[in-house]
Amino acid sequence: MNQNPLWKTLLVLLVLVGGALYALPNFYGSDPALQISARRDAMVDQQLVERITDLLKAESIEYRSVELEQEPDSVLVRFNQVDTQLVAQSLVSSELGRAYGVALN
Description:
This protein is an alpha+beta fold. Helices cover 44% and strands 20% of the residues. The chain is built from 3 helices and 4 strands; from the N terminus they run αβαββαβ. It has helices at residues 6-23, 46-58, 82-96, and strands at residues 33-38, 65-69, 74-78, 100-104. Strands 2-3-1-4 form a 4-stranded antiparallel beta sheet, covered by helices on one side. The longest helix is centred in the first third of the chain and has 18 residues, at 6-23.
């Protein structure tokens, strides 16, 4: 028979569930990406997607996908490796200038 009070058993279960929730993000792999959003009067549209795609192809930078996201009004470029993501960030930010914000994701 269990000689521990109920509150101790519940506390142990609560700590185990909390630890499992805290460790859960470690089971997902990394997904390096660039998020490009407009500043001031610049527009995020299909033409920007094509411009970024052409730029990455011209520099032979491998990317997984380029997506136009409507809700945050941005372009999301996914990569397979973090090194490629960093090279692409410097290239895209220098090409687009101050009109667009380029953030690592």
